[in-house]
Design brief:
This protein has one domain. Helices cover 80% and strands 1% of the residues. It is built from 13 helices and 2 strands; from the N terminus they run H-H-H-H-E-H-H-H-H-H-H-H-H-E-H. Strands 1-2 form a two-stranded antiparallel ribbon. Helix 2 crosses helix 11, helix 4 packs across helix 9 and helix 10 packs antiparallel against helix 11. The protein is globular. The two termini are 35 Å apart.
């Protein structure tokens, strides 16, 4: 019904703000189906594999949103949404999971060893992403070849992701009994859970085309800058699946799964989506590079440092979550005016 209403708004020429909200809502509502599928997969595949699979499918809508935005020439929105996706997952969504889980269950523990490897990969990936911006800021000779540099870095990052998959998919013995204890055995066949997970993500990808079509008129009508739209609105809408699923899992005290799902998303943004959009931009009239604005660079580096400090002890509480949400609010406010 939500997808049908979004389609009606798009093709019937209803007010752009209504069409924009309807498309965003359709993406968000599909997240509930993904949440049920992930819950069914978790007991069978383990937290690591579940997080990788869910994040990969969950990021498909954002990849489509980014590609359609590039075709529309909205390069500022795309660059801001890449950084915004990392920030929204690492601060807003993870903070909300810590807050909800902490208020409901008190201090919660998770497998810090596996998460530590993910955070290290995320730090390396974001460092590779911000180096072109640093070269441009310092007027290094390579700054004159930012397109070629971005392509090389994108290929390297995709290679790192491929090399990291075996370790991410490996199920760690004894890492998840606290999450699965007391829960009923999976009731869905594996094929059904995977099929529904994929179908929901593909459905969200179709809606993303309507979302982008209404984006520019909605920004003009509401007076929203490209930077804020990409950093906050597009990033949150594109990550609606992780927004819902991660918080739901934390509320159920399934913190291994919750943290794995949430942290794998910004990692795949940095290792897969950003490089993929750079390469896909070669098929459009808009060239995307990894030269981000200095304030975006500072925000993402600060976020990864805060994330590492919060994750390395393998324990979370509601106050840590509240602090992370507050930091996200401060960063979002910085970009309200562009």
């Amino acid at each position: 019904m939500a997808i049908g209403f979004a389609a009606l708004c798009h093709y019937a020429g209803l007010p752009v703000v209504v069409a924009f909200v309807a498309a965003a809502l359709a993406v968000a509502l599909l997240a509930s189906l993904v949440g049920r599928s992930v819950e069914q997969l978790g007991d069978r595949l383990g937290a690591g594999a579940t997080g990788v699979l869910q994040s990969a499918l969950g990021n498909l809508p954002e990849l489509f949103i980014g590609f359609f935005a590039l075709k529309a020439g909205l390069i500022g929105v795309v660059q801001a949404s890449i950084i915004g996706s990392i920030l929204s997952n690492a601060l807003l969504v993870l903070g909300a999971a810590f807050l909800v889980g902490g208020l409901k269950h008190g201090s919660q523990k998770f497998d810090s060893a596996q998460i530590r490897s993910t955070v290290v990969l995320l730090f390396l990936a974001t460092s590779a992403m911000v180096l072109p911006a640093l070269a441009d800021l310092l007027h290094a000779p390579v700054a004159q070849h930012e397109r070629a540099l971005s392509i090389v870095i994108s290929i390297v990052l995709l290679g790192i992701f491929a090399l990291s998959l075996p370790a991410s998919l490996r199920r760690r013995k004894g890492a998840e009994p606290a999450d699965t204890a007391g829960h009923e055995p999976p009731r869905w066949p594996l094929w059904l859970a995977v099929t529904l997970l994929a179908a929901a993500s593909v459905g969200a990808a179709f809606v993303s085309d309507w979302f982008v079509a209404a984006l520019t008129p909605a920004m003009d009508q509401l007076g929203i800058s490209q930077a804020f739209a990409g950093l906050v609105i597009v990033a949150i809408a594109g990550n609606a699946i992780e927004n819902v699923v991660g918080i739901q899992l934390a509320a159920r005290n399934q913190m291994n799964y919750a943290v794995s799902v949430i942290i794998n998303s910004p990692l795949q943004i940095a290792l897969v989506m950003a490089p993929a959009l750079v390469l896909l931009s070669l098929l459009t009239a808009t060239t995307l590079t990894l030269v981000f604005a200095p304030l975006l660079v500072a925000a993402v580096l600060l976020t990864v440092v805060i994330l590492a400090l919060a994750m390395f002890d393998g324990e979370s509480n509601w106050l840590e979550g509240a602090v992370m949400i507050a930091l996200y609010a401060v960063i979002a406010t910085l970009f309200w005016w562009g």
